[in-house]
Amino acid sequence: MRPSLVIVGAGPRGTGLIERIAANAPDLYAGSGLDIHLVDPHQPGAGRIWRAAQSPLLWMNSHAEDVTMFTDETVAMEGPVREGPTLHEWAGIDGRTFADRQLQGAYLRWVHEQAVAALPPDVTVHHHPRRAVRVSGSREGRQQVWLEGRPRPLLADLVVLALGHLDAELDDHQEELAAYAKTHGLVHLPPDFTADSDLSALRAGEPVLVRGFGLAFVDLMVLLTEGRGGRYEGDTYVPSGQEPVLYVGSRRGVPYHSKIGYDWSGERPPLPRFFGPPEVDALLARPEGFDFRRDVWPLVEKELGFAHYHRLFTVHPERTGVDWSTFEEKYAAASDAAEREALVASAVPDPADRLDLDALDRPLDGVRYGSFEEFQEGLHGYVEQDLSRSHDPDYSPDLAVFLGLLSVYGQLVRLGGIGPWWHGFFSYLASGPPGPRLRQMLALSRAGVLKFLGADMTVGAEGGVFRASSATVPDSFVEARALVEARLPEPTVGRARDTLLRELHADGAAETPDGLLRVDPADGRLLDRAGRPHPRRFALGPYTDGRTPGAFTRPRTGGPAFRQNDATARAALVFLRAVVSDAAS
């Protein structure tokens, strides 16, 4: 019987795994035959998120030149590099374009076809357009992968879960709001992928409370404005009359930072410097474990500061008070944040040139406005300043911090179980919307279609309506008959709607305190509650504690997901080679 590998999930992560199998097979698995079964109800390559059947108004939030599915020499992996075109090279479009998601889906489908074509001739790929609902089988024997609507399972020597983003059951607070909405005839849209949401219940002219100011909100904003016939004439929005009035707030009360609008030039900061493999090794070696805030975050702060000041001192020395070598020596020797802050205060005269991560994370902390109208103008100024800075190379230390964030994320992946705060912080600073989307936000606000609520937004249900308030405008509130939770579902094991994941958990797969599936950071094997890796089951993706910034990345930034894909592919091929050898002996 030919060896069999089942990959559950045929989106970008599953495609990346096949690409790595194709790259490593000549060295690790030549001439042995293999059946690869892809299980996914959606088309391979694009998967659910990047499927063709979605609005062409929805964009990627990365420049086309910053999107690749191919490895390069910056990826720290054992397997061979197989280079290929970025999205903009493949599509023949301007590299600074923010492509729509349909085009990205076409690119991903092409990458999938290329990866399959690169497999050895005795490896066959079978696509099963169904959902996997359960995996059974002992640790020592073949696994059974049960598919929805199919009486007999697929038999697998190995199973890799590449499930991607998952739906989730409502938490207790959401359950209460949903029940209240049902009782009082209100509209409550829980966390979801905006392209999948039914927005028809949000009626023209009526107020809608929106909790969440990230990328899910941007999609919602687009679908309820241009998606309903509105249009932009320069910086002016011309309503169609079909739009609701959106009142948006969040924990921070501000939108994610704009994508940087200029190119890098000159020397890159030499990263990692203060948070690299030796520091991660030391943390992992601690018998008592480590705490993120106490043990990891100080290293992250120092690393990001180093990236920022390296760029400031080497490119804008006129804005500094000492030479770089002197500053670098003292910065390296500084033992804590207070010592670094004193050094920076003495060497960088303008506070606008100093890196303040706390202020970046919570820009409205302690800020109060006397009226709702006053806050609208205040947030206009904040967004305009963000747009100006993000498109001005005089502030290129911001781009250096972005590179530092990518470097840090690559190291944090090895630690596992870092928790959702870091992912949210990273997304807020490094994975925000295109600049044009923020300009549209301002135009919608001036047109009266979009209004800002502020930070530390709270939502209650009373008097037959939803009521929202924020700390930014004390003693002010907004009532509405509709509430949208504009954020993605949290991919926790306990609340995932994915039957397969919940069955695995019931079968002994371990989870982190934050509800993520625990995997071996070396190769992605599932860990049980005793910490033992499962010899025949792997998992990759955002529902694991090995989560990365995404299944694809910008070129020449190390690509943590690519490194993981390579490690999993190599481990799988070595295991399958042993299966073939055992069968022959």
From TrEMBL:
Disordered as annotated region, ranges: 529-560
Domain FAD-dependent urate hydroxylase HpyO/Asp monooxygenase CreE-like FAD/NAD(P)-binding: 6-165
PANTHER family: BLR0577 PROTEIN
A matching Pfam family: NAD_binding_9
Tree of life domain: Bacteria
Alphabetical list of InterPro entries matching this protein: FAD/NAD-bd_sf, HpyO/CreE_NAD-binding, L-asp_N-monooxygenase_NS-form
Protein name: FAD/NAD(P)-binding protein
